[in-house]
Amino acid sequence: MFDIAPTELMLVAIVALIIIGPKDLPKAMRFVGHWVGKARSVARQFRSGFDAMVREAELAEMEKKWAEENARIMREHPPTGALPAPVPAPAAADSATPPPAPETPAENDVPPVMVEQPVTRPDGDPAPRPSDSGDKSAS
């Protein structure tokens, strides 16, 4: 974009160091960097908006060409009266497999049966299993 030689950049840095001073130079560079970032952001946003407009224009042009080509093809090859009838499946294959039996809704609506309820002690811990009650010396 800009053609700045390294010697020109060094000259600008030396002039900035002399004019601004070493104490305020970091603040000035931070300020300049902030504004350069904002300028790049605006340029990027402008470019993406412009690219979107170009894409939409190209898409509209392609749709127009497609519609013209479709109309030309339809003029050259008008649709015929009817399509040919579909070929039926062979009867031997239908008789070999019986149709599936319909599922009755009553079979699926039965609630599950609870076999056993868990036993809990008053302190909230579950009751010991019968195999655990035999040997208390291990704990």
Structure description:
There is one protein chain. It contains four helices and no strands. By secondary structure, it is mostly helical. It has helices spanning 6-20, 25-76, 91-96, 105-108. The mean pLDDT is 78. It is 55% helix and 0% strand. The longest helix has 52 residues, at 25-76. The radius of gyration is 42 Å and the shape is flat. The two termini are 80 Å apart.
> Which structural class should the secondary elements be placed in?
mainly alpha
Based on CA atoms alone, the radius of gyration comes out at 42 Å
Give the uncertain stretches in residue-range form: none
DSSP summary: helix tally:
4
Beta strands, count: 0
Q: Give the averaged pLDDT, no decimals.
A: 78
Give the CA-based shape.
flat
Q: Level of helix content?
A: 55-70%
Please trace the helix and strand order, writing H or E for each element.
Answer: HHHH
In what range is the share of β-strand residues?
under 5%
Q: Largest beta sheet, briefly?
A: none
